[in-house]
């Protein structure tokens, strides 16, 4: 049995329980129990109606769990028939609830993966490298936080997108592929709401996911975009990403995810790194800077300017930015190397490695410094021998 | 079984024998070093002696309570004199001798010229839970 297929039924089943009057926290526990049960028995005895099976089992678990007097009294008021509300609406409401603004980002991520994604607490804990008890606590606190939130009020789709973006961008790993899970959840959201930024985020994810195999060397080291083997990019994901993006852009409601996806699409379009349309990429960064006012965007724009108009222009764009920005030093090192100042570039690469926030990037930057130092040493030897 | 913390220092440990910073190595030397470290951790996972390991950024801050209703006081980062931890590995082994043996292996990771770095690692035993049977 396909576990992802089973998990894709989670939001619908949970929505049905909540519509019947179950409170969200208890219903969510009951659905988790039903998923575990399904994994146990379905492989030997698959039901004809998987969703109906899950609803029945989850509902029974919910009733078993609410045995207290008060709960029993309330239970008598519960409706046993599903009101005529579409599963799509329920799914959408669950996304809103799990990304509620009262939740911290890490809580929203955990709750989304469990209540919408149907992942177990253990799987989420493994994916984020924390003990299972810690993750269980994070999820139950998150559920308590959203306890009073009404299920029938529309939420803010931008907070949902931010949560999905966080899931996709998290580099950790366990037996769950978080990037693939984020794509699955975003596809599901695209089906539930017609919004160009949701499509923009999906396009952005697909275009980045397409490059995944070429992003790391066999020894685990990072391979920068310009040096990636483009033959290993997933062309079907790129085609789908570009198609999704074009449909979103045609609606003329530009947002930051569409703009980011447009930049990713321009990279995907170039058969060789030298053929990249940097002029258009700079224009998209200008657009993005207007939309977000993010200093990180302006930092990336400086890199693009360095490619479009030369390293000196890139350094001039960089000079206008705060030197304390993350990766500022790494960008400066890169631009100085392009400008031919290898001594400065090597020194900055060492400094950037010291500031790196992850091991792969630190190793990569140290390698850049080592490469330049070796090149300078060779040049000095050649000069001395002359 | 006893748990030990293997501490690697940016500063504060006696100098290594092969003490050349990594940006002066060749690409192959860097690759060989990283491979050695990964293989070491993988081997300890195989033998059931690996618990955890993490690398730390060199920037750190001291923080202390400054009284009711006041924000905590922060201090640092400090000048070159301070001891600075670069990372750790926790191992769970049968004896002190085994812990020393493993620390020695880790210290033999190759550096400049492919020769062992002979880096000083600090070995610290965990204080364990009291035993049930004491008499």
Automatic annotation (TrEMBL), chain A:
GO terms for biological process: DNA-templated transcription initiation. The keyword Transcription regulation applies. The keyword Methyltransferase does not apply. Residues 6-69 form the RNA polymerase sigma-70 region domain. GO terms for molecular function: DNA binding; sigma factor activity. Coiled coil: none annotated. This is RNA polymerase sigma factor.
Automatic annotation (TrEMBL), chain B:
Residues 28-107 form the YCII-related domain. Pfam families: YCII (PF03795). It comes from the Bacteria. InterPro entries: Dimeric_a/b-barrel, YCII. Belongs to the YciI family. This is YCII-related domain-containing protein.
